[in-house]
Amino acid sequence: MEQPELLIVLTGFGPFQSCTDNPSEALVRKIAKEGISDVLPNARVIGEVISVAYDDVDNAISELWQKHRPDFVIHLGYHAEDRCIKIEKKSCGIGYVLCDVKEKTPQNYRCPLAGCSNREEENTIFCGLDCQKLLRAVQTIFVGKNVQFELSCDPGRYLCAYSYYISLRHNKDCCLFVHIPSFDDVCTVDLVASVIKQIIVLSMQQILEKREKQNFALETGDKCSLFGI
Fold first, then answer.
1. What is the spatial distance between Cα 43 and Cα 36, in angstroms, rounded to a whole number?
2. What confidence tens digit (pLDDT) does each residue in 45-86 have?
């Protein structure tokens, strides 16, 4: 029986401040061009590079969710820590005081999708994927590659966190943000592309397993399975 196509949305960012050559842009273009059929044969990737501007991110991220109804959305962004790839566990919808490339901030320094509260904990959303499980798996797959993998609870308070928050509001169980470093002779674009592809595969395994349990619960009336109890 032919497997249904899985639709993956992959985003990165253009240049900003001193980051004139954003590695997330290069990675999105590379993976979108190559596809991921080598690791996930029934998947199609839609790549999108977004300018580092709050209004552009607002429009682009929500449009990607509404237009494509993806199975999984994975956002990539640059960070300055060499040879370290970070899986982000959460994001917050308020406190965006840093100006973007248009010298603007969001109105009231908050994402339009954030709640009315000014309390950070009430505007924080955690990713619904098992990020610890993802971390252990990629550490095992890429052991000996001289690249570190970490879980992070601090995606910053700039466009990376902003984009992640929007996706978490759309569906926290089907999105992820990964911070990547600059490329060098060890942490090459090919290696990081392989890492991102594996993270996509591992994330989709979790998503499909959960979907299967929910479908089974609906068919059998098992409320405990339906609500993940």
1. 7
2. 999 999 999 999 999 999 999 999 999 999 999 999 999 999
Give the CA radius of gyration of the chain: 18
For the entire predicted model, the pTM comes to 0.92
Q: Are 169 and 95 in contact (CB under 8 A)?
A: no
Domain boundaries, the chain: 6-220
> What does the DSSP assignment read for the chain?
-PPPPEEEEEEEE--BTTBSS-HHHHHHHHHHHH-STTT-TTEEEEEEEE-S-HHHHHHHHHHHHHHH--SEEEEEEE-SSTTEEEEE-EEESB---S--TTS---GGGB-TTS-S---GGGGEEE-SS-HHHHHHHHHHHTTTSS-EEEEES---SSHHHHHHHHHHHHHGGGEEEEEE----SSS-HHHHHHHHHHHHHHHHHHHHHHHHHHHHHHHHT-HHHHTT-
- Contact between 217 and 226 (Cβ < 8 Å): yes
CATH class of the domain at 6-220: alpha beta
- Assess contact for 9 and 73: CB atoms under 8 A: yes
Question: For position 212, what pLDDT does the model report?
Answer: 87
The CA–CA distances, whole Å, from 77 to 58, 181, 208 equal 16, 9, 25
Record the tokens describing residue 150, joined without a space.
Answer: 């970490």
User: How many C-beta neighbours within 10 Å does residue 201 have?
Assistant: 15
